[in-house]
Design brief:
Butyryl-Coa Dehydrogenase, subunit A, domain 1; 4-stranded antiparallel sheet; alpha+beta; binds flavin-adenine dinucleotide; Butyryl-CoA Dehydrogenase, subunit A, domain 2; 9 strands; 19 helices
Length: 543
């Protein structure tokens, strides 16, 4: 395995601190609320982040191009911290990285040198132009065409691009676009600079949330670019290039969900400490804490543990972690959403007003389950790939994960790894049961299995992190135990749905379900409320 990529942790923290200070100075909360109300993207602020004073974009660029060569962990941490402050600005800023990715992943050495050095030194605002009115989740359906222009000897000298892009972040403010267009050999990315004749911004979108980010269509009418702007120098590799970056771009958007959810729950917890009802602070009410604060907190921690594990694997040189990126994004953004929703509830009527910021966070975080792969597309990706892996490995994929959990549990005080192992073993049996019964291709089953797979994999990562923190952070073990039990309970609910949902009445199915480890209600519930109370107490007392 290669050495871990990325910045030294102190340097990463320095960048994050600088970023926070610049936000505090230029865009305090009152200003963020104004931008949201005015539906305005703070272009000058984005330029400040790209300026030599801050240079935050350098984290995302390779060292050879004048960047700092940040890794997946750096990108995830910066994304989470920026999303905690404002998801609209984070979207605008991180869209620059997304737009740059096709060049980083697929550019020729000359293209990397030329474009990446310019992005680094000039601080160009970049946009990623893939989506079209009729091609959203199904990227392969794009209609934008790039026709070859030949010289007298039949050599390609230029391409002429025609088409319309939809919902492009930074669509009206970018200086450089990476545009996916159909060439004779298939979809290909092109670099197109602002000012190129025939390129213009389309309709500005009046959005539900992330109103501080500019989202617009991009219209290309007979846009002529030199052949040198075909990224990678060969036609037809655009979808491969887009897919190659999913491991960490999805991690990045997952970090958005995580950051927004954390910001909402931090505000809700602070409020609950102050707000007195029925003679005591809300934070003292056991049910209020369990339902609205603690359960969300520990789910966010589970997402964080998983995302950190995947980021570390990417930084250690592992390739092909697209499914892991999908798992991280799917659950972090869904949990970010449900947490922000509960945070509104936690503030009662005040949560519903604009003044308290949570209402804005709730609207902002809503986008994260839609862009960079909708939740349903991710469920398909997760379900399909893990099913194939289970069949291919004859069940070894999840059973070895379960064995790791058994080993973990035997070496330490309980972090819930034994329960996670039971959930993983049951999951493995359920996948194989659905496979044998040929029901697995039915989409509701695939989606439900994807939920169970996601939670089981998160539970495994959470248990590992809890072991690593067993001495320093004692609240981690009860959190990971709670999450493991919730996972086991959900595996059983999912088993019933998947195995019996399409079958009228069948004793063999009943026998299968009763035989699962998760069928024992004691395993998923014993001590659960005590552990939730332990975490609630820690939250109540923490600064
Ligand atoms: C604010 C914002 C910023 C964006 N920024 C960018 C950007 O910078 N660059 C860019 O290229 N794009 C961008 N997008 C586009 C975004 O990636 C797409 O909106 C997204 O991929 C979904 O495509 P769609 O909107 O066409 O929805 P559709 O693909 O039409 O999906 C509609 C619904 O159907 C579901 N669905 C679709 N296919 C299936 C299936 N096979 N089975 C089951 N369910 C299915 C989806 O999950 C969804 O719930 C942005 C979008 C927004 C709103």
């Amino acid at each position: 395995m290669a050495n871990s990529a990325g910045l030294a942790p102190e340097m990463r923290e320095m960048f994050i601190q600088t970023m926070k200070q610049v936000f505090d100075r230029d865009l305090p909360e009152s200003k963020l609320l104004e931008l949201d109300a005015a539906d305005e993207c703070p272009v000058d602020f984005i330029k400040t982040l790209l300026s030599p004073e801050v240079g935050l974009h350098l984290v995302f660029l390779p060292e050879e191009a004048g960047g700092l060569g940040g890794g997946a962990m750096d990108i995830a941490r910066v994304s989470e911290e920026m999303a905690k402050i404002d998801l609209g600005v984070a979207t605008a800023f991180l869209a620059i990285s997304l737009g740059t990715d096709p060049i980083i992943v697929g550019g020729t050495p000359e293209q990397k040198k030329f474009w990446l050095s310019r992005i680094a030194s000039e601080g160009l605002i970049v946009a990623y132009g893939v989506t079209e009115p009729a091609a959203g989740s199904n990227v392969a359906a794009i209609e934008t065409r790039a026709d070859r222009i030949l010289d007298d000897d039949g050599n390609i000298t230029h391409y002429k691009i025609n088409g319309t892009k939809q919902f492009i972040s930074n669509g009206a403010i970018a200086q450089l676009y990476t545009i996916l267009a159909k060439t004779p050999e298939g979809p290909s990315f092109f670099c197109v600079e602002t000012g190129t004749e025939g390129l213009q911004a389309g309709k500005h979108e009046d959005k539900h949330g992330i109103r501080a980010s500019d989202t617009a269509g991009v219209v290309l009418e007979d846009v002529v670019v030199p052949v040198e702007n075909l990224i990678g120098g060969i036609e037809g590799v655009g979808l491969k290039q887009a897919n190659a970056v999913f491991g960490y771009t999805r991690l990045m958007v997952g970090a958005f969900g995580l950051g927004a959810g954390q910001a909402a729950i931090d505000k809700a917890l602070a409020y609950a400490k102050e707000r007195i009802q029925f003679g005591s602070a809300l934070v003292e009410k056991e049910g209020y804490m369990a339902k609205l604060i603690t359960r969300n907190w520990l789910k966010l921690e589970a997402c964080r543990a998983y995302s950190e594990e995947v980021a570390a694997r990417i930084d250690n040189g592992e390739d092909g972690l697209q499914v892991e990126g999908a798992v991280a994004k799917y659950w972090s953004t869904e949990i970010g959403n449900s947490t922000a929703d509960d945070a509104i509830q936690a503030l009662g009527g005040y949560g519903y007003t604009r003044e308290y910021m949570i209402e804005k966070i709730r609207r902002d975080v809503r986008i994260t389950t839609i862009y960079e792969g909708t939740s349903e597309i991710l469920q398909s990706v997760i379900g399909m790939n893990r099913w194939k892996e289970t069949v291919r490995s004859k069940g070894e994929f999840y059973s070895s994960m379960a064995d790791d959990m058994v080993e973990l549990e035997s070496g330490c005080d309980s972090v819930g790894a034994g329960i996670a192992a039971a959930a993983l073993r049951d999951l493995n049996s359920i996948i194989q049961f659905c496979h044998a019964n040929k029901s697995i291709r039915r989409q509701p089953i695939m989606f439900r299995l994807a939920d169970m797979m996601t939670q089981c994999e998160l539970a495994s990562a959470f248990c590992k992190k809890a072991v690593a923190k067993i001495e320093s952070d004692t609240h981690y073990a009860p959190m990971s135990r709670c999450f493991a039990r919730n996972t086991l309970a959900d595996v059983y609910a999912g088993a019933a749905e998947c195995c019996a949902g399409y079958i009228a009445e069948d004793d063999s199915v009943k026998k299968f379900l009763i035989g699962l480890e998760s069928a024992d209600p004691m395993l998923a519930n014993t001590d659960q409320l005590n552990d939730i109370q332990l975490v609630s107490t820690w939250l109540r007392e923490k600064d």
